[in-house]
Amino acid sequence: MHPSTLLQLALMGLFVASIPLTMVWLSADANKYRKLVWVMAFLTFDLIVFGGFTRLTDSGLGCPDWPGCYGAANPFIAHEQIAAAEALMPTGPVTKVKAWIEMIHRYLAMGIGVLIMALMFQSVRQWRKTHQQAFAPALPVALFLFVCVQGAFGAWTVTLKLQPVIVTIHLLLGMGLLAMLVWLGGREDYLLHPPAPSRDLAGLRALRTLALLAAIVVVLQIALGGWVSTNYATLACDEFPLCDGKFIPEMDFEHGFTLWRELGKTAAGHYLQFSALVAIHWVHRNFAMIVALVLGLAAWRAARQPALRKTAKLIAAVLLAQLFTGIATVFFDFPLAIAVLHNAGAALLVLLVTMLNYKVKHLLDVSQRTPANADLPANSYR
């Protein structure tokens, strides 16, 4: 790729990042570092949702090279190449609309990358000056390294032609980036407004284990959901709760869950049979019951702690909405809006479960360090 194209892409990333940076700088909030963290978390959530839209509209190869589009910085410049590809395959992966969807997704990703670098530089600079815990640079540096890995998988998603395991890992890394930003935002919030301790240490310890289990099952379910989406297995079962008229239909787990293979192919290069797609869909659908059980129990236990009640209610509400949109996707034959909402619900669950884990961990730490804890009324908080 020509150096001028790379320069144009870099300038686009700086331009996208300059908008939220300016908003944070001009805001009345005195703690601009904390505000920047939460703005980045919000934008990362948006990027994940738009990434789901990109995948669901089959726009992942709208520009079949990386990081530009046919070697250009934007689809306007690559108009002739895109028009030629669209003329050859009018319903194929390359169209003008799909090219713009893909490049907008990349521009947003580049902007977030620039924001993460700005956050890292600011944290290191402030840490050297003040040594305040709020600016501890370990997590911002980890975020920078993490986003570099995420960028590499974004490139491989295109260059390896949407290989399912690469696309699924790319999705999981995006969710991981969101979780890290929420964790950092939770740290900034709790340093600014520390919670009062509780004497219910046994309840908090049990809830911490349950919250960790909730995080694990959510990650597994997102991986399974990503595997469904990247293998185009969403409508492999077009009824609910049955699949092909049976509770346990004919399924090919061996080929369905072979990780390293081309899209639509087996590891040996043969076309993937429909029974493999059924297996992929069926596992994701049924694992949702485990997720509902674990998250429902975690939300119920968290609601018994006054400081966690709001988070618990949000988890319960998003969980119900997620179950509804998952079923509706099947009933309504995969409407795009519902499918995008289902992806957004998964990202919201990551955000809320991460928040729950941070709050429980911090609240438990504060309670264990408080000598007067025994004199507090049960579940007492400021």
From TrEMBL:
<dbReference type="GO" id="GO:0016491">
    <property type="term" value="F:oxidoreductase activity"/>
</dbReference>
<dbReference type="GO" id="GO:0006784">
    <property type="term" value="P:heme A biosynthetic process"/>
</dbReference>
<comment type="pathway">
    <text>Porphyrin-containing compound metabolism.</text>
</comment>
<feature type="transmembrane region" description="Helical">
    <location>
        <begin position="134"/>
        <end position="153"/>
    </location>
</feature>
<dbReference type="GO" id="GO:0046872">
    <property type="term" value="F:metal ion binding"/>
</dbReference>
<feature type="transmembrane region" description="Helical">
    <location>
        <begin position="6"/>
        <end position="26"/>
    </location>
</feature>
<protein>
    <submittedName>
        <fullName>COX15/CtaA family protein</fullName>
    </submittedName>
</protein>
<dbReference type="InterPro" id="IPR050450">
    <property type="entry name" value="COX15/CtaA_HemeA_synthase"/>
</dbReference>
<keyword id="KW-0560">Oxidoreductase</keyword>
<feature type="transmembrane region" description="Helical">
    <location>
        <begin position="38"/>
        <end position="56"/>
    </location>
</feature>
<feature type="transmembrane region" description="Helical">
    <location>
        <begin position="338"/>
        <end position="358"/>
    </location>
</feature>
<keyword id="KW-1015">Disulfide bond</keyword>
<keyword id="KW-1133">Transmembrane helix</keyword>
<keyword id="KW-0812">Transmembrane</keyword>
<dbReference type="GO" id="GO:0016020">
    <property type="term" value="C:membrane"/>
</dbReference>
<dbReference type="Pfam" id="PF02628">
    <property type="entry name" value="COX15-CtaA"/>
</dbReference>
<keyword id="KW-0408">Iron</keyword>
<feature type="transmembrane region" description="Helical">
    <location>
        <begin position="206"/>
        <end position="228"/>
    </location>
</feature>
<feature type="transmembrane region" description="Helical">
    <location>
        <begin position="104"/>
        <end position="122"/>
    </location>
</feature>
<feature type="transmembrane region" description="Helical">
    <location>
        <begin position="314"/>
        <end position="332"/>
    </location>
</feature>
<keyword id="KW-0479">Metal-binding</keyword>
<keyword id="KW-0472">Membrane</keyword>
<keyword id="KW-0350">Heme biosynthesis</keyword>
<keyword id="KW-1003">Cell membrane</keyword>
<feature type="transmembrane region" description="Helical">
    <location>
        <begin position="165"/>
        <end position="185"/>
    </location>
</feature>
<dbReference type="InterPro" id="IPR003780">
    <property type="entry name" value="COX15/CtaA_fam"/>
</dbReference>
<feature type="transmembrane region" description="Helical">
    <location>
        <begin position="282"/>
        <end position="302"/>
    </location>
</feature>
